[in-house]
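Blinded run. Sample ID left blank on purpose so nobody reads anything into the name before looking at the predicted structure. Input follows.
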Amino acid sequence: MSRYLPACAQIVLMSRFSIQEYAAAMRDEVDELVEAWARERADLDLGPVAVFSRISRLARHLDLARREAFTAHGLAGWEFDVLAALRRAGAPYELSPGRLLRETLVTSGTMTNRVDRLAGRGLVERYPDPDDRRGVIVRLTVEGKAAVDGAFTALLEAERQFLDELSPEEQNDLAVLLRTLLRPFS
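Blinded prediction complete.
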């Protein structure tokens, strides 16, 4: 079989399905939803429904996988977000609260509460900012680094399973297309 054909196309050729049989085997609930709308509203272009209903369903599955990966490592999603921002900063894994705000897109009151709670769990620590006597620096602890690293590894394993059906080239193409769709929001 050609290595240039996607796995699903190779299966079709190997099993000698007709195009109709292949299309029927690949149908999903969104196809049924689009067909129902097309029956009721033939005047509308339903292309966006076919795309965004699938993205929405995938987002729900991804959200569940993220929650599971984080929970397995004793973290809530917001905790992971803060710890991950510190981890991505590189050694010594520290940021000012203002930088954490920009990295996690929350208000300063929310960040103060989050840092307090993470410090109470021993996942971060605060110390005076050497460049600003009024400021503090938030640093990831050894425990915090272990928690975020474990959760991130578990998350990547889950996300990899979502992409197993796509070749590396298809994954890259999908990333480019999604980046294009997100560009207006950046």
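Unblinding after everyone has recorded impressions. Residues 1-5 have pLDDT under 50 and may be disordered.
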